Amino acid sequence: MNIDWRSWYQFLAIADCGSLNQAAEKLGSSQPTLSRQLLALETQLGRKLFDRSTHGLTLTDFGKTLLEESQNMAASADRLQRLAHGQDLTLSGSVRLSVNEMIAQYCLPALLPAFLNQYPDLQVQVVVTNQASNLDKRDADVAVRMFRPHQQDLVMRHLLDIGIGAYASDIYLDLRGIPSTPEALIKHRILGFDRDKQLEDGATALGWPIKNDDLHFRTDNMALMVEVAVNGGGIIFTHDYVANLRSLTHIDCGFTIPSVPVYLTCHRDVQHNQKIRVLMDFLAERLPRFIADYAGKQ
Fold first, then answer.
1. Cα–Cα distance between 84 and 66 in angstroms, integer?
2. CB-count burial class (<10 Å; 0-12, 13-18, 19+) for 168
3. A biological process (GO) annotation for this entry (predicted)?
4. What CA–CA distance (Å, rounded) separates 155 from 266?
5. Is the dihedral of CA 229, 235, 237, 240 positive or negative?
6. What's the number of CA atoms in the CB half-sphere (13 Å) around residue 201?
7. Please, which residues bridge with residue 53 across strands?
8. What is the pLDDT of residues 158-198, one digit of tens each?
9. What is the DSSP string of 139-185?
10. Across 31-40, 156-165, 257-266, least confident range
11. pLDDT digit string, tens, across residues 134-153
12. Cβ distance 191 to 259 under 8 Å?
């Protein structure tokens, strides 16, 4: 029996999604095509891999026995791709960078043109996400992260720590006044997250009774939150350099918010890839300097 690896890859996607529609979308295929491919695999094996119901697909006992080895095959295939990619010594082609919304909105527009001019044969693909991209599966080649990565097979550089504070526009402060204590601050219109629990968790650590449900404005888009504050929407907790870039005024209420570490990381299997190295070296030099320059402007 000679089964193409792609069939096992499709099997894993269906098992992971529990739905042919979702698995087809993940694979860039269509539901009818994937359904035919699954039926062909089950015909080759002579047994059903999934039980079908109105609630989706669930693995049969036979399917479960094949899942772990299929996952091991996928991990090996991913590592082979990383190793092959890691030996590339050319400075052409593409390199994929993952950053969060704040870095994407307020840093990269000022930094990337110089990189593109320096390496005109390189294509830079930027993934903007506030979640950690999967470097094992090459969702990105290089990632900038606002936490210390704990995965053992990653190579990382600590670039700097970013200060955070309470800020508002002069428009808002002229209208509502400047709070001078934490108690006065939480009575103001605070802009914060919707589903993200960063603000809630940070407030709890400082002993403040701030909940997302109590906020007058909520969004998980951090750049939007900043721009609403710029236009007089309320008080925001944000990075010092972003606040200074957008001419927000610092509010001193007698407390200190812990800074956020910034790490530059890639998978160890691709650390010698020339495209990845030049991008990491560029960001390691330029990003801390850019942030520090604006963080110091009060």
1. 27
2. buried
3. DNA-templated transcription
4. 5
5. positive
6. 6
7. 56
8. 999 999 999 999 999 999 999 998 889 888 999 989 888 87
9. S-SEEEESS----TTEEEEEEEEEEEEEEE-HHHHHHH----SHHHH
10. 31-40
11. 645 567 889 998 888 877 78
12. no
Structure tokens at 224: 């939007």
Query: What element of type H or E holds 105?
Result: helix 101-106
Token pair 């960063």 in the structure block, residue = 198
List the domains of the chain with CATH numbers.
5-86 (1.10.10.10), 93-161+260-295 (3.40.190.10), 163-258 (3.40.190.10)
CB-CB contact of 142 with 267 (8 Å) = no
Residue with token string 């994937």:
34
The amino acid occupying position 2 is N
How many C-beta atoms lie closer than 10 Å to residue 290's C-beta?
18
Amino acid at 22: Q
Q: Which tokens go with 81?
A: 């791709």
Are the C-beta atoms of 230 and 246 separated by less than 8 Å?
A: yes
Rounded to two decimals, the pTM is 0.67
